[in-house]
Amino acid sequence: MNFQLKRWIEKANKRTHGTLKKVPQEIFEAEEKQKLLPLPIEEFKLIQVGSRKVYHDCHIYVLHNYYSVPFEYIGKEVDIEISRELLKIYFNCKEIAIHPLCKEKGNFITNENHYPKYKRISQTENQENYQIKMKNFGPFAEQIFFLILENQTKYWHKTIQGILSLGKRFSSEIVEQSCKRALAFKVYEYQTIKNICENGSYKLPMEFNREVYE
Questions:
Q1: 59 with 102, same domain?
Q2: Among 18, 113, 161, 199, which residue is least crowded by beta carbons within 10 Å?
Q3: According to the model, what pLDDT value does residue 42 have?
Q4: Is the pLDDT of residue 73 over 90?
Q5: DSSP states of 102-143 as a string?
Q6: Domain assignment of residue 40, yes or no
Q7: Within this chain, do residues 30 and 57 fall inside the same structural domain, yes or no?
Q8: Structural domain of residue 143, as residue ranges?
Q9: How many other C-beta atoms lie within 10 A of the C-beta of residue 70?
Q10: Residue 197 contacts residue 175 (beta carbons within 8 Å)
């Protein structure tokens, strides 16, 4: 249809118009063309809109990531506006937060000022708190913590939270022994440690590689 339309336009624009009694191509060149504006350099930015409920941790879930919202909106429905680079969050038509849009998945994009004052802690304090919790499982779990911190700089907290959650299903000893086995094989993913806990492979004999633990 595009091909047929192009052929028709080429033909119709060069013949005398029945009503105007003029040739459309000639009118365009003489009168209309000079009044056209240049096309913008950037493409037209389409904006996506929607709504989200603010979770108890002051975040909303958008495109596989979590974005913070001021704590006073916890439990409320907010409107979102997604452009190519930004996420804007509104409540009752008032902008309450704006974030750069994260291109990755599974990240927390957090403005610390969105937390109430009693919950605002530094990144260092946050890491220390998680380290203490991992250390409660045992020394191997603590070493897993440092490996995760070093190799998963952007989403370490999510992996650590997953391992800590295993303590709700398994004893500290099982989690610790599972971390020990994971270290022996130089892996530190949550899913792997979870599988070791579930399938009982932490009971299996293994070669103890001292280099891993020293």
A1: yes
A2: 18
A3: 78
A4: yes
A5: PSSSS-EE--GGGS-GGG---HHHHHHHHHHHHHTT-HHHHH
A6: no
A7: no
A8: 123-213
A9: 18
A10: yes
What are the residues facing 67 on neighbouring strands? 60, 109
Enumerate residues 6+ apart whose C-beta is below 8 A from 141. Answer: 134, 135, 163, 175, 176, 179
The pair of structure tokens assigned to 167 is: 């303590």
pLDDT in tens, 25-67: 999 999 999 999 988 887 777 889 999 999 988 899 999 999 9
CB 184 within 8 A of CB 212: yes
Does residue 8 lie in a domain region?
yes
CB atoms within 10 A of CB 133: 17
41 domain-assigned: no
pLDDT at 76: 95
What is the structure's pLDDT at 122?
Answer: 58
pLDDT at 212 over 60: no
Q: Classify 192 as helix, strand or coil.
A: helix
Residues 158 and 98 in one domain: no
φ, ψ (nearest 5 deg) of residue 60 = -120, 155
The secondary structure of 133-169 as a DSSP string is: HHHTT-HHHHHHHHHHHHH-TTTHHHHHHHHHHGGGT
| Residue 175 sits in the same domain as residue 194 | yes
- What average pLDDT does the segment 17-23 reach? 87
Which tokens go with 193? 């440690």
Strands 65-68, 108-109: pairing kind: parallel
